[in-house]
Design brief:
The chain has helices at 14-23, 33-39, 56-63, 75-88, 124-132, 161-168; strands at 46-50, 67-72, 92-96, 107-113, 133-144, 173-182, 195-203. It has a seven-stranded mixed β-sheet, sandwiched between helices. The longest helix is centred in the middle third of the chain and has 14 residues, at 75-88. 27% of the residues lie in helices and 26% in strands. It is built from six helices and seven strands. It has a single domain (14-203), classed as 3-Layer(aba) Sandwich (Rossmann fold), CATH 3.40.50.150. Helix 3 (56-63) packs parallel to helix 4 (75-88). Mean pLDDT is 83; it is low at 1-7. GO terms for molecular function: 2-polyprenyl-6-hydroxyphenol methylase activity. This is Ubiquinone biosynthesis O-methyltransferase. Keywords: Methyltransferase, S-adenosyl-L-methionine, Transferase, Ubiquinone.
Length: 204
């Protein structure tokens, strides 16, 4: 998960993420607002939390009856998330790995919140996301609205909502949401962002 200021370069390796997480709690400690809004209307099932960070989303989902698999490249983040889940008394399957490094099955919901996933010259990440969703399941992809990203930040370097949307359109998916939402986060590394781009799609 990445709420980085868009003028800053996000870490690119597990070691760099470990260093970033090792300094202090990075995020607000609260589940992401779009996730809680969207998932409130869904029946619990299996969910993959991609880039789980310190685990706020995973714990929130598990408390509401979801069977949660959560992954992050940072061992420090996952250890912190595991401790959060144990304190909350919920079970989560934790994986220390990058998305696409190993097949993890298919899920009723794949949640990708503010990822910092480098984008190569092909669509392998988008294809991996597509494979991870079970028939009838949903992909929720949320990132900061970067229409006014500062000079020097190239959104083409990372997988963004527009890339996911372009990949899924016309490929047997129903686009349920493609919108910009206001967000209000008082603390944590993402407090400076006020709008999110949200894509919610169902595999039909």
């Amino acid at each position: 998960m990445s709420h980085e200021n868009p003028s800053q370069k996000a870490p690119t390796t597990a070691e760099e993420w470990d260093e970033r997480y090792g300094t202090a709690d990075l995020w607000s400690g609260e589940p992401n607002q779009t996730l809680t809004t969207v998932v409130a209307d869904l029946a619990p099932g299996t969910v993959l939390d991609v880039g789980c960070g310190e685990g706020a989303d995973a714990v929130w989902l598990a408390r509401r009856g979801w069977s949660v698999t959560a992954l992050d490249v940072s061992r420090v983040a996952v250890e912190r998330a595991r401790a959060r889940a144990e304190a909350a008394g919920v079970a989560v399957t934790w994986l220390v790995q990058g998305f696409g490094e190993a097949e993890t099955g298919q899920f009723d919901l794949v949640s990708v919140q503010y990822p910092a996933i480098p984008r190569g010259g092909d669509e392998h990440v988008e294809e991996a996301l597509e494979r991870a969703v079970a028939p009838g399941g949903r992909l929720l992809f949320v990132h900061h609205d970067m229409d006014q990203a500062p000079h020097g930040y190239d959104t083409q370097d990372y997988v963004m909502p527009q890339h996911v949307l372009a990949h899924l359109t016309g490929q047997g998916w129903e686009i349920e949401r493609d919108e910009v939402r206001e967000r209000h986060v008082p603390g944590g590394a993402g407090a400076g962002h006020s709008r999110d781009r949200v894509v919610l799609a169902r595999k039909v």
